[in-house]
Protein 1
Amino acid sequence: MTLWVVPLTPWLLALLLYGAGRRLGPLALGLSAGVALVLALAVTGLSLNAGTAASFRWSESLSLGLERSTAGDIFAWLVPLVALPVALYAAVHVSQAPRRLVALLLAFVGAMQLLVLASDLLTLLVAWELVGACSWGLILHRWQEEGIPSQAMQAFLVTRLGDLGLYIAAAALFAGTGGFGYAALGELSGGLLQVAVAGIVLAAAAKSAQLPFSAWLFAAMAGPVPASALLHSATMVAAGTFLLARLAPQLEQAAWFSPLVVFLGLATALIGGLVASFQGHAKRLLAASTSAQYGLMWVAVGAGFPGVALLHAITHACLKAGLFLVAGLAERRVDSYRLADMRLGRVLPGVAGLSLVLCLALAGVAPLGAAWSKEQIASAAADVSTWLALGIAFAGGLSALYATRFQRLAFGRSQRQRSSGRSPAWGERIALTGLALVTLMLSLLWWRPFSEAIAAFLGIVLPKEHAWLMVVSLILVALGIGVGLWATRRSAPEAKPAWQAVLAGWLGLLTLHQGVADGVMRFAHSLARFDDCVFDAPATQLALGIRGTARGLARGDDRVVDAGLMMTARCWQWLADFNARRGEWLADGLPSGLTKGVDAGGRWAQATQSGQTHHYYTMMVAGLAAFFLFLLLGAFL
């Protein structure tokens, strides 16, 4: 079984589900989506075991290729596994066109699997565009609502700006080696190497929401909750970090690659943590958290431990998908994403308990799995610099702060009893419970024999652990939880200092992104008007001239046309009069004659039904005689 079947299977299943699922209810749609993703997982396992590479020749000089790798194998399994509960949740949670949303989620899985298995920049570009198109479609799911199209366009344009780097990198690689294969990156040198590495870093930073591209995640929050859950956990935002981890050995040939990646990752982790700590919108808090967590993964890649970044991607994907589902349930209850409107601990105690597990993992509280992977990143940073390790530990303290704020504000106990909104459906509970259980199971990573066995199986090198660093990290986590509890001890005032608003808006990046998107759209409209003036105006004048000429000719030919019409009318009038005088016998006589013939035939047939056997034999003999007569005539003719 070829590797091409891995991405093709979710695409075909998406088309089948969209076409055949027109009459499916939420239960049937959720079960169908689950079966489709289980089938995709089975095909993934069979295909990965069957071969390590596959290629398709596009032309004599271009070909598309897939190849197994450690990073690719991890994400090829991770993406459909995370999508499974998300698709189930989407089928029962979304009321507006759930079939379309679930089908698009399946297509998104296929696009991401193509991306992670690509073995060259040409195939990567195809997958990169498909991932971008799917994410835009998911964000734009409720396109009829005011403001959502502009938000989707903002997210699309900002990421597209970074995507240009991948085209530049592919051009540099082809110019230097005559091919697009990842292995060919090792053959580059000089300026082409610098251009290729810079282009890949630019594209990865835009996709993974690293500075200065982080604020596009806020625009992406216009999409439905299931789209945000998959987008932030294992697909769109993960694509950039995956690319760096996959190509780290080749990219490290550029001396500036590792320092730049470490700087961008640490800056994003710290600033993203501060942005999340002052957010009052549940989904935006989680979005800023996503940017910060991927910043930690970037530090691991820059420190020379891309495998550690992949392990943190696994633990983060499970908890972050679950937290977005939690936010959707809270919003459904109060009809708002404002954390100040929630405090639903008394109303949704079961959801509150599952959310607590996920928030403790996000906060980095041992012995949950996300805490272990975060400590591995801190240990990797310590191999580069003690100050860098302390920066990672401080970012971990910020994670504890905003995770505590989310849990306390969303599911703290309130004296007000809220009865509006519906309770979570079965599919929503199953999806959330599954992700919380996986998060708990990942706590086994703290057991050294288990984590070492996993690392050896995946071929991942783990950094040397530092006891003092773990103590510092735990202290900062405890401090972050304490500050979070203190900050949420009572309802926050509506009026906030101006500096908090600036920080919550990514230090002005959100406004900048909106300005860039609006400027691009205004420029596009200006080009459209210019096109109308320059190219359409002559055509319009020509059309008007032709129309005037036609009118002149029409006025000159009115008499001829009118005379012809009058003559035709007179001819048809004469035929009608003739039919009225002479054709009545045909119109009335023919049906009457047929009726009389049928009546006579009926009487004759009735007379033959005498019940006497010799009459029937006589008719049979006559029929056979007629039959043989026709045969003889045919033979002679």
Protein 2
Amino acid sequence: MNSENLYFQKEISWLAFNERVLQEAADPSNPLIERVRFLGIYSNNLDEFYKVQFANLKRYVLIEQEKGNASNAKNTLKLVHQKVIQAELKFETLYNELLLEMARNQIFLINERQLTSNQEEWIKKFYKQNLRQYINPILLDSHTELIQFLKDDHSYLGVEIINNNEIKYALLELPTDKISRFVLLPSDSASKNKSIIFLDNILRYCLPDIFKIFFDATEFNAYSIKINRDAEYELSSEMDSLLELMSQGLKQRVTAQPVRFIYQKDMPKALMELLLTKLKLTENDAMQGGRYPNLKDLMSFPYIGRTNLLNKVLPNLTYKRFKQFRNTFDTIRDRDILLYYPYYSFGHVLEIMRQASFDPNVTHIRINIYRVAKDSRFVQAAINAANNGKKVTVVVELQARFDEETNIHWAKTLMSSGVKVIYSQPRLKIHAKLFLIERKENERITRYAHIGSGNFNEKTAKVYTDFSLLTADPMITEEVKKVFNFIENPFKPVTFHYLLVSPQNTRMRFMELVQREIDNAKSGKPSGIYLKLNAITDKEMINKLYEASTAGVKIRLIIRGMCILKPQIPNLSENIFVTSIVDRFLEHARVYIFENNGLKDTYISSADWMPRNIDNRVEVGVKILDTGIKKIIRDIFTIQSNDNVKARIIDQDLKNNYVQRGNKKKIRSQIAIYDYLNRLENDK
């Protein structure tokens, strides 16, 4: 078989994942406002795809053209374009269907031509009191360097200012970072109808108020545009510090070449050509859109109306064992703890850090930061610990894509508070989710460690599913300390037995673990591989799974996003079955389970099976030693494997067909897991 037929193109696989998000918007069993928000998630995902995946693909095509090579990447580029257009048509149809459904629920999304006289007066006041201060028109003339300041991801209105036969042009930026994109309009007191207007349409209505103070005009017209810029940047090794490197890199991103330009499809040709010229793009780089080409804001569409328009709230579970001990350290020392967000409250981890910050016995706290909340209580606890005279070391990953500015801010704040701040090496991101607390107990140091799959982020912990292992097991905590030492001294030799640490031993250990299953299958012993990942794109590991499948090893994969492995190929991957779960929570946990002749070795990790996670990042996975926790993780994986409501089959055609339930009991894994964990807590 041709090697190209062994794998999906990763960009096409990614687009198939985003189609699954679109399926959630189309699913009538989801509450109405949740469906609208899924449209926003789809739109936001697509923006990120263009800034990263598409930009990389386009860059690769240009490199191959320079070399004079014929490349499949160019064909992939065309296929991506076709797939996006097809998906965007589905999006537009869905958007219009949901507008009608909202109207049936007395929620009306209206434009500037549908206002009542009272609403017109209200909007004029709203503009003057709340909006005008943020409106700074950009006049488009021969001197305008548009590519230098047009912001990535922001919405703009391209404006025609017409005075008889003379036409001038301007741009208006929508200040959605200052004012909500959705404005609730006053309605008749006797009416139960709710009217919402886009901020775009308020500006459209107020164009005369904006421009007539300087321009004589007989007509104003406005058309939406947006751009996505290449998110990559070059880091020069000549600069003094990584902080300076990252600051310079962010400046490059701001002025990076646009990779996508979307314009309202009825925009006059003269205005479109002017914008393309100033952005140094061609018509091939442009994509037609509707009146609102930037709809990622639908993610935060306001709740208006009845409670049945939103998902039923699942209250955070409380880990009851914390109440049985004097403090959190006594709880962890008694027995390892597994938390699974968002089912359990992230507040448990925040409380551990809060207690550590003023516990007289705590001497040293080490933390990895990748993405944290804007007003992070986690970071504030680290600062408080330093204020209390404790030694605090924080590894800040400045290269966390799209969070670089936030992390630069935190790095400076931490340093000014007396915290020792460490950065990763350029191009070697630290993606591990670790903290290590050293505590003096009975004249000896006891260590408490956190190893997880998710960030220390209060916001994402409400919607991302992630595991946290909390342990005082000296075999594990000693190795966590070695990870922090490795980060500070990456060229010093180090070995690990209980941890999978990229780029040190992860690939080698994966190969050994899969090979053991192959050997067991050939020997007639129980074998099997069960993986839950966000993505699997590493061809070397995929080939090893193909080898295992050929040897008779049953392989069960649950992959949320990109999966370039092709399952169910006769004589190659017929023993590999893959599903993807997309539901109200974003599946983010990584789990590896290897049958090992019935011992069922179980790991949780921060690493997907991608080259970057295995070879080019610091990632940490841990072997679960506690038998009770092993069972919980396996039970959760079994529930997810049996999902027949929100699971889609990844087949050779990437059709995203739902798993068929037949006569089986309905299992929606995210709800079933909540019920399972709730029963565990009630049984304690």
